[in-house]
Design brief:
This protein is an all-alpha fold. Helix content is 79%, strand content 0%. The radius of gyration is 25 Å and the shape is rod-shaped.
Amino acid sequence: MSVASFIKDYGSAIPWLLVTVGWFISNAQANRRELRKEVRSEISELENIVKDVGKELRSYYATAPASDLAHERALNIKMSMKALDSRFDRLYCHNLGEFPAEPPVEIQSVREQFFDAVTGEKFESAVRPVGQELATILAKQHSAGLKLIDGLYSALLKEFN
């Protein structure tokens, strides 16, 4: 069979084949773009929670230790941390996007540092830190939050570029 006879016999199917292949390629690219948007949106929500935790932590340390307001703020912080945990799990454990099922060790480590910075030290103790001690606690929390978000954005770039 020569090329000319092949084109004569199957020439009408070639445009349909090209259209179908083009559609599959276009669809795959659109799906990847949507996944990237979903992952970026999830990371943005995580960033908002980290910021809210920082604000709530500053307010928490400004209240009297045994007051109802202090208990309410501590509860808000714990609930925000639980929300952060569930969003983080949605991002990794439920394999949103093309992220692996388990977070990389460095991101998991930074996540644990953030949790420790928020709920460790003098959190829920009878004595509130003041001055330099308070500044150190808040700086650790802020730094750990930034590292967590930066790590997630780095993972986003690594997976989708």
